[in-house]
């Protein structure tokens, strides 16, 4: 029998990657659809669910705690137990009079748990796969199972919720069943990882004081990087339009035509946006990676910015024409999501470029924090803007909001051969 010390990465890499995605999808996507089904206004659901990005924004601030206390393996197992309990608590709160405030409080706890789980998991990967060759071999596996969890969540679970709503006529009960199912899945993952995760010799508590001694120096060195102002502008503004569009995509697709939406059922939304859309997103990301490896990031950046943002115009078309064909709607969303995935590959590689150096892990975490902040702030006001403008003019505004991304793409500095094989 294979010992835990030398267990194959195939026994745990896919399952941890899957478990990283599920709570993020629940917090950032399923909550939006759920609150829309439960009658929450666009302004409220956008504002309050956008706040849930905050733990990912500030997670670099408490990352040293993961180093100081316990092992990363223990953090992973305990945080999965907490996430499973949180998912069950969401299911319970949906039947209470103050369900909106109480479920948001639980989702807030889950967001902090998920962000901390990401810190522990990312560190554990480097310990469990100690060589660069192993890490490179499984980077595709990690991405594939993360995306698989997105499809299962945004597609399968949303579709299931829609079917349960149709059969019961009670959205609160339907979403309670979905969150209860996710809770059971996470508790099973927690038990599985308790027995399966290896115990690397290097996974131990860091001596007290060591992380804190370098903490300020690490942040200072990040903000002293050459061209840091353009870098921060790029991180914050690259997805300014997309941040607003993404928050209103679900309400637009679900709202009745009388309110300017497309009137899809929840199950149709799960199929069209959560399954076909995410598959197109994955294909776009793969194509973006191929483009960068062939031409390098410097040459590919401008075309990738165009491919990412110009397809946002399909939402202007959808809000203007209000087509009834599910095939046409699916095709439009696939084009937009493919472009998003294609352009986002450039964004991810640029963060790797910025993070390169002595503190690359910490600097990459800081980059992702600014990335999350660039999604959180525009997302908070997107619902209010939509209610003032209506869907058609809101999507025109979202397209105009992509213009700063083009400006920042012209200001950042990228080495000629970076990203090219």
Q: Can you walk through the features of this model?
A:
The chain has 421 residues and is an all-alpha fold. The protein has two domains: 8-195, MFS general substrate transporter like domains (Growth Hormone, Chain: A, Up-down Bundle); 222-413 and 415-419, MFS general substrate transporter like domains (Growth Hormone, Chain: A, Up-down Bundle). Helices cover 80% and strands 0% of the residues. It is built from 16 helices and no strands. It has helices spanning 13-37, 42-50, 54-68, 72-93, 99-128, 132-168, 171-196, 210-223, 228-237, 240-254, 266-295, 297-309, 313-321, 326-355, 360-400, 403-411. Helix 12 packs antiparallel against helix 14 (326-355). The protein is globular. The two termini are 40 Å apart. The mean pLDDT is 87.
Structural class: mainly alpha
| Main sheet attributes: strand count, strand direction, barrel closure | none
Look up the CATH topology of the largest domain. Growth Hormone, Chain: A
CATH class bucket of the largest domain: Mainly Alpha
What percentage of the residues does DSSP assign to strands (E)?
A: under 5%
- For the terminal residues, how far apart are their CA atoms? 40 Å
* CATH homologous superfamily caption of the largest domain: MFS general substrate transporter like domains
Count the beta strands: 0
Per the principal axes of the C-alpha atoms, what is the gross shape? globular
Please provide the ordered H/E string of secondary-structure elements: HHHHHHHHHHHHHHHH
Number of domains: 2
Poorly predicted regions are none
Query: What is Rg?
Result: 21 Å
CATH architectural arrangement of the largest domain: Up-down Bundle
């Amino acid at each position: 029998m294979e010992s835990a010390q030398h267990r194959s990465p195939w026994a745990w890499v896919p399952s941890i990657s899957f478990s990283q995605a599920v709570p993020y999808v629940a917090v950032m996507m399923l909550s939006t659809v759920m609150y829309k089904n439960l009658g929450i206004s666009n302004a409220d659901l956008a504002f309050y669910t956008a706040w849930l990005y905050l733990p990912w924004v500030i997670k670099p601030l408490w990352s040293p705690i993961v180093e100081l206390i316990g092992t990363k393996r223990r953090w992973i197992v305990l945080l999965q137990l907490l996430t499973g309990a949180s998912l069950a608590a969401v299911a319970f709160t949906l039947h209470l009079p103050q369900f909106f405030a109480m479920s948001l409080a639980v989702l807030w706890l889950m967001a902090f748990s998920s962000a901390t789980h990401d810190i522990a998991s990312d560190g554990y990967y480097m310990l469990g796969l100690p060589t660069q060759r192993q890490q490179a071999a499984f980077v595709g596996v990690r991405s594939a199972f993360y995306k698989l969890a997105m499809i299962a969540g945004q597609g399968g679970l949303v579709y299931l919720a829609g079917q349960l709503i149709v059969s019961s006529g009670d959205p609160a009960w339907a979403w309670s069943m979905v969150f209860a199912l996710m809770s059971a899945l996470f508790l099973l993952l927690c038990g599985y990882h308790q027995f399966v995760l290896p115990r690397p010799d290097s996974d131990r508590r860091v001596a007290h004081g060591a992380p804190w001694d370098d903490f300020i120096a690490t942040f200072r060195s990040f903000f002293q990087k050459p061209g840091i102002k353009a870098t921060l502008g790029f991180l914050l503004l690259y997805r300014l339009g997309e941040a607003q569009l993404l928050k209103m995509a679900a309400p637009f697709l679900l709202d009745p035509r009388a309110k300017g939406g497309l009137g899809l059922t929840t199950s149709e939304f799960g199929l069209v946006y959560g399954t076909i859309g995410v598959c197109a997103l994955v294909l776009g990301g793969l194509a973006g990676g191929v483009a960068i490896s062939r031409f390098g990031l410097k040459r590919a950046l401008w075309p990738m910015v165009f491919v990412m943002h110009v397809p946002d115009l399909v939402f202007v078309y959808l809000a203007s024409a209000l087509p009834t064909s599910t095939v046409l709607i699916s095709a439009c969303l696939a084009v937009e999501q493919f472009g998003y995935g294609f352009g986002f590959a450039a964004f991810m590689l640029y963060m790797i470029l910025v993070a390169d150096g002595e503190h690359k892990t910490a600097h990459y975490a800081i980059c992702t924090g600014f990335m999350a902040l660039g999604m959180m702030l525009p997302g908070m006001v997107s619902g209010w803007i939509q209610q003032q403008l209506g869907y058609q003019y809101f999507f025109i505004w979202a397209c105009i909001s992509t213009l700063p991304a083009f400006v920042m793409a012209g200001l950042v500095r990228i080495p000629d051969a970076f990203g090219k094989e």
